[in-house]
Records
---
Amino acid sequence: MAGMIPQQMIDEVRQSTDIVDIVSDYVKLQPSGKHFKALSPFTQEKTPSFIVSPDRQIYKCFSSGKGGNVFTFVMEMEKVTFPEAVEILAKRSGIDTGKYIRKREEQDEKTENSLLDTLRWAARLFNRTLESEAGRQAYAYLTGTRGLEAATIRRFGLGFAPESWEHLLRAAEEDKVPMEHLTGLGLLTRHPQRNTLYDTFRNRVIFPILTIGGQVAGFGGRTLSHDPQTPKYINSPESAIFEKSKLLYGMHTAKNEIRRQETAILVEGYMDVIALNQAGLTNAVASCGTSLTRYQATILKRYTSRVLFLYDGDNAGKKSMLAGIDILLSERLTPWIVMLPGAEDPDSFIRNYGKEAFLEELESEKSSFQDFQLQCYRDSGFMDNPDTASKAISAMTRSIALIADPVQKELYLEELSKKIDLNRQTLRKVMTASSTSGRDPSREPYGSRKSDAAPEKPTSENKPLSVPERTFLEALLESTFYGNEVLDFAASHETMFHLDNPAAHATFTHLVNRFREMGDRDGHIDITSEISSIETEEARNIAFDILFRLPVNETTRPNPAEIEQHARRCLSHFLVAVKTLMLEPLQKEKQAVLGQLQSSTEKPEQKQLFTRLHDLNNQLRTLDQEVSASISTILGRE
């Protein structure tokens, strides 16, 4: 939440605002010791349970369980988002927010331009490498095995990353390219144990993925290795620049032809687009190896109203097209489907049979989305019995319901009525029911008709906060008032901790991630602001409840010795809580085994249980000793 607006702006607004003044605008506060109290603004009550702490600048409502700071209070009362709450409080305090927004926009634009420069640099490096001696094998693969012409390779800016751990790294050091850009864009990867950098793309043909405007946004890499353990394709990781779900490969070269022909050919892979383009079919684009997304459909809608689906004919491809049909229809696009014979894809078909045969195949095998749906459900056996047939029909009528044109909708309904021999009145009822029932389960089992699927595991959303988890969070939150020592330890040993409660886990991971994002920034984390930006309400309420109950330091300005004393106490409490959390799973299993022993009457079973109990006691003793020794070592170093 906080990341949407500048942190400096949030800090100034918070420092210029008193929670007592803000809350007083909504409820009548009465002094109560160091706090203020009032009737809850969230529930109907006769005895005040709403408490405001001016020392901590937070509130706690004991009747509703809600807690927070000045931002979350305004969010609750005004029903606004976090950024809107900051704006409201900024105006109330007379703070000019425009200076922050302008500065943020300038910084964002500068950062984006710098990242785009880095991507262009990498694309040129990969391309030069492909055309050098180091890329001879990759170039032969593209021109020989894949049948690409030199002009096509240049047109799509193809490149090569050699089988080296430091090819791009060394070039970047020589050209003084920022390492943080290369790691952020996924071109370099950091080794978790050695803390060293190495090239992400190795021994791969590189496909630059461009935006509609022709800017390099990311890369796809196709391995030349024959190792079955090596992924065939990898892509740049998601970033502010590269969002795979919002890009269509080849769109920058295909957009004008798509508009001219009023049709887009939608394929799965990079090579499919390139092969079709080389054959003169320049209106082809690919969904970057993923199922079609709504955002990609909206891009297509800018240039055409017709899409020719040409995915692979295996079950995965058919399932993707079934899902994509609804996405296209919901964006007012008309989908047509072509299934190539056998295991052919557009790239292999054109290489094997040529352009003319491909065009003939498109013309003869093109079917409406409805015919394709019906054929898929028939092939998978869904139309063989009434139970599964009703699900398939529900899915098809749901697709019809997405059509915006009422005449088209009626015609498709009539066509379906003829094809499955069911009257339109019945289909219309099914369509109304299926279009309002939310998720359609008939889409999920395509290609598999198992009816004995395992039930979903129960969630732990309502799992209560255990005493060890609460102690753990108390020590963690309190420690932030005295520095980053505990957070630093937690971030370095995150895998040690197992928190069953989702809210406790969300609070812990949020604070650890925010601490990592701070890097080496001076000062310690502002705990009330960080809690208010936790995504889940349950986690925020639990964290604020803990924070509200923590003791307030009586010293206005504690001296360094007092701060160190408090910090050591927090670290000690935290480590004890960690120990309890680590021992808890074994303790629970021990109690379960003891329970089984009490009810067991069979001697062989009793013998097994006694053996397990003996093992658990040994494990508990060993783990207790090891963790206690580690705690003593850590505290002794401090």
Note: Residues 560-599 form the longest helix (40 residues).
---
Amino acid sequence: MPFRAPVSDYEFLLRHVVGFDQVSATERFAEADSDTVSAILGEAGKMCEEVMAPLQRGGDLEPARLENGVMRTSPGYANGFKAIAEGGWIGISAPQEHGGMGLPTTLSAAVNEMMSSACLSLELAPLMSQGQIEALEHHASDALKELYLPKLISGEWTGTMNLTEPQAGSDVGALSSKAVPNGDGTYAVSGQKIYISWGDNDFSENVCHLVLARLPDGVPGTKGISLFLVPKYIPDADGNPGVANDLKVVSLEHKMGLHGSPTCVMQYDGARGWLVGEEHGGMAAMFTMMNNARLGVGGQGVGAAEGAYQHALAYALERKQGRTPSGTIIDHADVRRMLTTMKADVFAARSILMSCAVAIDMGVATGDADWKARAAFLTPIAKTFGTETGIRVAETGVQVHGGMGFIEETGAAQYYRDVRVTAIYEGTNGIQAMDLVARKMMDGGEAANRLLDEIEAQAERARCTIPELAEAVWQATETLREATEWLVAQSDMNERFAGAVPYLHAFARVLGAHFHLAAAMADPDGPRAALAAFYINRLLPEHAGLLAHAQAGAEGLYALSADDLAA
């Protein structure tokens, strides 16, 4: 069974579950009416099915390689990226004055997720460019915007982000890369960066790197970091790629998955760069790109989950084993359990992702502080639950295949290998959870409680039609509210951090139930109601154990010394 882009699922979500009508009702996004949305999703889905999906296995079997300093991408990737660029999919939400469509982030998130389902390794390339586009739009000078944005939006040039260094992983402030003024408004950037996704390719005219480095007067730590735009080829007077810059790809990482996406070690030796944003304000500018990427990475997780689910479902429909009504394994109770869990979690994760994107769009369109706070609160949840769902669903997909799942020829294992890194890059999921219980709770839990109020209000409305499901969601929300109050009351951050991950997952479980309940209300006699009942009755109860863990505090984590752990 070939890959099928989940266009109808997205149309249902946007229409009935996540409130996209609020976005299209704003003056800013009035063009995103139902006809436009259907056209965008339909065309993007067709491209994913016909162009990208056939590249999935090839990129894994024939990875990107570095030959005498020249990058060679996987067969077919150049044509795949060309189709993405010519379709306008890089610039869906980019500013119209520079060639973008100016449409809501919600639509670009949906398209990115479908591309991730089809071929995650290739989807990383446009995702990196989109993040750079947003960073430049908000922080670059007008001259840089006019030169770089049209090229990035069209796909003629591609973008990357360069944060990590060998000695500085998540501790970005420990970087050692330097930038020295050249005296002509440019800077000489030197240093080495690792884990650079799509650090080079053989299908774009130029590769534009956003590089964090420290100016001579930059103080230690993150407050002394600046951001620089460092192109592979220095643009000439006409804005075309000119002489090669003093940078190179040293090597490619040998990875567990994502073989089609070249992950580079980059070396800068006095490369010419241009300052983006204020001096020593690099982290603020880079966080614009990272927050964009975190939503995108959550979508990668959901996309990989969708691909893995479809792959497993196709196998279960064909594999003959045991005595069942159909003669295939899909009628075995445990296989049904696995497949239904996969489908229910994909829906929950996708709904959280789309709800976060809607909040981002509403914040942009209205400037309302509550919408912006909601977007900020949902971002770590969307990233973490989306990627964890991708990992869990892909692993279950291997299990559905049985022994054949452990055999590479089936392609089941690739989904797991490819998606595993999404829980690590763009801020590990542990860091996302810490951000949720610390920075995102600086409001005393107001953003969290506004969400909980909405969940309970919907559960109240659902009592007259689906009372048992509504009651379960309402009770779970009350338990989550009590845990949130406990969390906010902890002045010792380590007490919060000790339970941050289970708290985030409990919040995601309740949000998932909320969105499943909305789907059941919109489709009371259909399969979505049955799927909602499965999720609420069988998966939502996990929230109780997670919240018990979240409120257990830090003391028990240190009951064993380092020596005890090593014994």
Note: The chain has a mean pLDDT of 95.
